[in-house]
Q: What sequence folds into this?
């Protein structure tokens, strides 16, 4: 039914990046039993889970157990991380067959001078079955700011990229730099807020994906990190029951009609970035 389902295993983070909106829900680490309950619910409806909404998934002490549980349920896992903890944990990922992709948010605001080198060298330890995405922001006109320019230059030097790949890296949004490593550039977006007054029009939420917050709250997408559009709670009722609710069905239809009915969705500018 869904191309992917987001599961927020924790809403705690070890950084405070300016581009992330504040978390208003109580801080929590999902338990092993909570996570397995959710996997049993979502496994019949998707092949891919993304362990990210807010928070830093590598902070979770049971992340390795979660990856093994995903393997048990035949689910492939995508991680989005700031990468600061990756060098210390990389050895735990080597034998995790469920781990499909790791997205590194290289634009995160951290102070380690060896940050990029530490990630680049440890990525080499991963299986060739794991796709690596280096993600960074561009300006509204698609150009690189100074920070992103510095990151790109270090990628070029470390991977000794050919002039042809360098040209693509500088001019294209998505560039393959090796057999399993890609660089994705995209404009920074503003998190939706009910105080804004925009119209996003068509959205793929509830058609291709939905999100489950750390307390079990089901929301239409990963941009509703505070559960403003609470469609139900998967810890209290089945996903099938939630999908059949009037609020869920009305919102799904409103996306199809390009007239979102929820105030938060009306304020979302993600599709315009």
A:
């Amino acid at each position: 039914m869904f191309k992917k389902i987001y599961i927020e295993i924790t809403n705690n983070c070890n950084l405070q990046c300016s581009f992330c909106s504040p978390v208003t829900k109580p801080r929590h680490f999902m338990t092993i039993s909570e996570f397995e309950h959710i996997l049993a619910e979502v496994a019949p409806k998707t092949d891919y889970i993304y362990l990210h909404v807010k928070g830093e998934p590598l902070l979770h002490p049971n992340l390795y157990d979660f990856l093994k549980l995903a393997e048990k349920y035949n689910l492939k896992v995508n991680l989005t991380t700031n990468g600061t903890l990756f060098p210390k944990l990389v050895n735990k990922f080597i034998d995790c067959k469920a781990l499909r992709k790791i997205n590194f948010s290289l634009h995160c605001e951290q102070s380690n001078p060896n940050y990029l080198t530490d990630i680049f060298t440890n990525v080499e330890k991963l299986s060739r079955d794991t796709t690596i995405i280096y993600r960074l922001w561009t300006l509204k006109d698609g150009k690189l700011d100074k920070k992103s320019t510095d990151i790109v230059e270090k990628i070029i030097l470390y991977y000794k990229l050919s002039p042809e790949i360098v040209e693509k890296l500088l001019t294209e949004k998505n560039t393959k730099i090796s057999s399993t490593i890609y660089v994705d550039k995209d404009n920074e977006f503003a998190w939706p807020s009910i105080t804004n007054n925009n119209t996003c029009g068509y959205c793929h939420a509830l058609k291709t994906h939905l999100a489950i917050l750390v307390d079990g709250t089901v929301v239409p997408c990963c941009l509703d990190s505070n559960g403003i559009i609470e469609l139900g709670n998967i810890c209290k009722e089945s996903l099938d029951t939630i999908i059949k609710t009037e609020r869920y069905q009305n919102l799904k239809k409103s996306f199809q009609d390009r007239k979102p009915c929820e105030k938060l969705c009306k304020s979302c500018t993600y599709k315009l970035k």
In short: The two ends are 27 Å apart (CA to CA). The chain has a mean pLDDT of 93. Residues 211 and 219 are 5 Å apart (CA to CA). DSSP finds nine helices and ten strands in the chain.
